[in-house]
Amino acid sequence: xxxxxxxxLIVILVIAYCGYLMLGTTSTPVPSSSEPLANxxxxxxxxxxxxxxxxxxxxxxxxxxxxxxxKISHYPHNDVSLLAxxxxxxxxxxxxxxxxTTAKHGxxxxxxxxxxxxxxxxxxxxxxxxxxxxxxxxxxxxxYAEEEVADTQHPVVITSPNGSITQGVGMRAxxxxxxxxxxxxxxGHYEVNQ
Length: 194
Prior knowledge:
- Keywords: Cell inner membrane, Cell membrane, Membrane, Transmembrane, Transmembrane helix.
- It is a single-pass membrane protein.
- InterPro entries: LipoPS_assembly_LptC-rel (IPR010664), LPS_export_LptC (IPR052363), LptC (IPR026265).
- The chain is mainly beta.
- The protein has one domain: Lipopolysaccharide (LPS) transport protein A like domain (lipopolysaccharide transport protein A fold, Sandwich).
- The chain is built from 1 helix and 13 strands, in the order αβββββββββββββ.
- Strands 1, 2, 3, 4, 5, 6, 7, 8, 9, 10, 11, 12 and 13 form a 13-stranded antiparallel beta sheet that branches.
- A hairpin with a 5-residue loop joins strand 8 and strand 9.
- It is globular, with a radius of gyration of 18 Å.
């Protein structure tokens, strides 16, 4: 079973559980007033989750990722889920290190394997000994969960643990391999440890 099938199964189970819980309640949740109202009923979300916490495990029983958000709303007309303040922890299969990804907004595309993040996107590497590793900052990032790849065509700033800063436009990060490729307008400032 591949990662996207497992993700889909977890989402379905969470939805079914929430539906079960909602059957026992008598009050109807009120959507947030900061959300724009749908133009018609067909474009309204068919469900939403408040403060969801989803943990995905590998077939070996190890943590694969943890997804936490303020809210997830699913829209059936295009099978897209919108995430408010998503926070994703990706655990590396080859070590105890992890990548912590945050943004103001997220959009999970149909199939559940591609996540687009926007507004103040931060990707921080956290080493198993608790030290911070590389930090990536951009305003838009596409995360491919199955391949453990993140990319953007937007400007990106990369800060290394020693304080060196690299800037560029366009990037592909191979998270599992700790390798980052910048596409254009690359500039760097290297800090020498003394």
